[in-house]
Structure formats: C-alpha cells, structure tokens
Write a structure and sequence with these properties.
By secondary structure, the chain is of the alpha+beta class. The chain has a domain of 69 residues. It is 59% helix and 16% strand. It is built from three helices and two strands; from the N terminus they run H-H-E-E-H. A two-stranded antiparallel sheet has the order 1-2. Helix 1 runs antiparallel to helix 2 and helix 2 packs antiparallel against helix 3. The longest helix is centred in the first third of the chain and has 31 residues. The chain is rod-shaped.
C-alpha cells in the first residue's frame, strides 16, 4: 500500500516538474530573441507572441489536488486537498520585454 502511494506521489512530482520546465523553456526562447534586429511585420508578430504567452501563463489552471503524509507522536495520517490551482502568477520578465517591444514599435511608427 505504501509503495503505491510513494510511486503515485513521485509520479505527480515528476509530471509537475515537466510541465513547469515547458513553461520556462518557452519563456526563455521568447526572451532570447533580439527584437531590435526584426523587421516591422516580424516585430508585430513577436509582440503578439509575447502577449499570448503572458496570457497563457497567467490564466487560471484547472483543479489542483494535493496529498500530504505526516506523523505526530505515535500517530500518522494522510490528507488530500483540492484547490483551484495557481492564479496569482505573473510573467514579469515577459511583461518587461513586451514594454520594450512596444516602445520599439512606437519608435518605428507602428501601433500594435
């Protein structure tokens, strides 16, 4: 029984880490691009990709389930919690880049 629980918890942790690394790699790829060398159309597309990624990262996720195991003295217990998932996350680096890109667009006389 305990082995199955440990395997389930480890699987959940691994899947969560995989999902979070996917978000980080998308953000890093967007931030690695040099927007100052882009043409006007490419810069507009880049601006909207930044906007979409910020929205994707900040929108509420689906239900979140947590499992806890603990001991207190001679007693041990297990708990399960259900929540709505993270909703307060902000993509500050992407927001800063979007501001820079918006200023570059304005300098070129473009309006997103």
């Amino acid at each position: 029984m305990k082995t199955k629980l440990v395997i389930a918890v480890l699987f959940t942790v691994v899947v969560t880490m995989f999902l979070l690394s996917g978000c980080a790699s998308q953000t890093q790829a967007l931030l690695a691009e040099d927007y100052t060398k882009m043409g006007n159309e490419e810069l507009l597309r880049y601006f909207y990709r930044l906007d979409d990624e910020i929205e994707r990262q900040e929108k509420a996720w689906g239900p979140e389930i947590g499992i806890g195991i603990g001991t207190f003295g001679h007693h041990s217990g297990m708990g399960v919690g259900v929540g709505t998932g993270p909703t307060g996350y902000t993509a500050d680096d992407l927001r800063n880049r979007r501001i820079d890109v918006r200023l570059e667009l304005k300098k070129r006389g473009l309006n997103p």
